[in-house]
Structures are given as C-alpha cells and as structure tokens.
Amino acid sequence: MKQTTNRSTGNAGGTAAVAFPYWALWAACFLGYTAIGMTIQVIPTYAREHMAANAIEAGLAVTIGSLASMVIRPIAGRLADQRGGRPVVMMGSILGSIGGLAHLVATNIPTLVVARVILGLGEGALYTAAIGWVLSNADPARRGKIAGHFGLSMWTGLAGGPILGAAILALRGYTAVWVVACVLPVVAWLLLLRSPRTPAPPPSQDGRRAIFPRAAWAPGASMAFASFGYGVIAAFLVPRFLALHLPGQEFALAVFGITFMLARFLGSPVVDRLGAPTVLILAVIVEAVGLFGLFAVTDVWSAFICTGLAGAGASMLYPCLASLVTETASSHERTAALGLMTSAWDLGLALGGPVGGVVAGATSAPPFAIAAVAALVAIVPLVARSKRVLAPSRRG
Q1: Where are the domains of the chain?
Q2: 197, exposed or middle or buried, with CB in 10 Å at 0-12, 13-18, 19+?
Q3: Largest CA distance in the chain
Q4: How far is CA 151 from each of CA 110, 199, 218, 220, rounded to the nearest angstrom?
Q5: CA distance 335 to 43
Q6: The whole model's pTM is what?
Q7: pLDDT tens digit sequence for 288-338
Q8: Which of 318, 331, 338, 377 is deepest in the core (most CB within 10 A)?
C-alpha cells in the first residue's frame, strides 16, 4: 500500500491518487503560513512596545520576511529540481521553526529582523518545494484545480494566523505567540516524516538547471503586473473608503478576502475545462474592472461590488499561470520556474503600496486606476509568448 501511495501521483489524477502526499503537504503549508500570519499580526506592536522601534523599523520587521521569501523561492526551486521536493520541504519546515524560536530570543530590532528573515526563508522554501512536488506529479488535466486549491493552504494560513495570533496574545502574551510560531512548523515537519521519498528528475542534456528558467519569464511578468493590484488593495482599500466617507470600511478587506478564496475554490477547476489562457484573460479583465471601479465609484454598494470583482479576478492568477508554467517548463527546472513565478507575485504585491503611495493624494483613488492599467498590461507578455510559440509552427 505504501508503494502504491508513493507512485500513484503520476496516474489518472483521481482524488485518491494524490491524497496522502497532497494533504500532508497542504497541511504543512497551512501550518507554516499560519505561523507567519500570527507574527505579522503582533510584530508592529511588539517592536514598538518592547524595542522602542519607530514606524520605519516596525515596517521593516513586518516586510523583510516577505522579501526573504521572494528571494529564496527560485533558489529553493532549483534545489528541489536537483534533490527532489521532500528534502527542501523538510528543510523549509526546520527553518520556519528556527525563525519562530529566534523571535523568542530577539532582544532588539537587528535580531528581530534576523528572525523575520529566517522565518521568511523557511516558509518560502516550504511552499515552493511543496507546490513543485504536487504539480510535477499531478494529472496534467487537473493541474489548474490542484494548483488553485493547494494555494489555498497559504491563504487560509495567512487569513487565520492573525486571528490566532491576536487570541494567543490576549490570553498568554507575546512569549506564547513566539512559542506557537515555533511549534507549528515542527508539526508540519512531523506530518512530512512519512511522506514518500521522490527521486530528483534527471538532469538536462547539457547538465544545467537554471535558477531563472525561461519558461517562467512571460508568466512571471504577467504575474507581477497583475498582482500589483493586490498590493494596492492591501494598502489603499480602507483609506479609499474613508476618503469617500463610506460606512463599512472595517469589512472592506474581509469582502476582498472572502471573494478571493471563494472564487479560487470554485474557479480553479474551470482552468482545466476552458484552458489557462482563456481563464487568465477573463480573470485579468474582471480584476481590472473591479480596480477601475474603485477609482470611479462613490457609493458604498458599488464599492463593495468592485472590491469583490477585484478579489475574484486576482484569485485566478495563480492557478492559471502555475498551470502554464508547469506545462511548458522541462522537468529538470519546473520547480525553479514555479518559484520564480511566485516571486513575481511577491514583487508586484510589494510594489503596489509604495508606488501607489506616490500618487495617492487625498482621495486614495489614483492607485486604483494605475493598478487597473497594470492588470490589463499583464496580458501583453503572454500574447508575446504565444506569438513566439506559434512562429516555428507557421514557418514549418
């Protein structure tokens, strides 16, 4: 039975075919990102109260972990392509636990930043190797659904982590938060102990494995442009509601998050039925309409509808682009390509706030117009890629 489980991920792709490794990896990523979500919730207050940090230092302590994840993803992907996904996933869990422990012993801003970096490196490596492992062994006819649903492990962790962190802080204080943030990745590591050992893919003919595979260039560029809107939403949605004097601003991000996860869950199977390029174009258009609506509308119900549209459109970027990357990347660099594409998401998200802040003004409206244009521009790299792919066949 164990042997069947180890090898079954390459078959027709029924639920049982991916059940054991899929759900162990899903749970591990969920636990890892719950730990990150917990720390994000409490870090700003902790840095100010216990380390006398100013706003810039507290902001650095929050964001540096995401930057570390962005940097490590393609490197972790390359390691997974060389050695197989399992050891890199296990290493990511260990780094995550060390990062949680480092929060417990940090005494000043520099040591807290080091803790954040270690935690970010761990969770970036964990997710990248896990999604590469899952998609490399998934039925090609179900890759969109599997990519989208597996990605919910990260989003549910990031959504639930702050709630858990706030509850633990209220009940037991900061020390308990850091202890739990250390323990959760250990639980993830334990879940993976019995996961099947997977051999590394054979090397390419020239023996090289790229850190930045060409298969991820166009999807990565599209991802960076389209995810810019998510960064704008995170930074300016509530200020936009406040500038318009709209009620319900405390629910605005919740509406975005709920529609994001609901659309991801329901829409991911559609990627496999209609094809990733078709769904991606539709998703980008829906996201752009929602973002431009937030620039233009002035009443509360329209604002909530546009928020939901932006969330639904943004949710489908990853399953579409992950499906395209997995389809086109060769086996010896597939996980590195997925890592690079995911880093592009991190990049667009990171730029949304600062770039939007330059043009925000008193109304916080202009960033949404820029984000809508950026979402539409996301189509261009894929159109150019399609023309390059079709050109040889036309000449033939």
Answers
A1: 22-192, 214-389
A2: exposed
A3: 69
A4: 32, 24, 21, 17
A5: 31
A6: 0.87
A7: 999 999 999 999 999 999 999 999 999 999 999 999 999 999 888 999 999
A8: 338
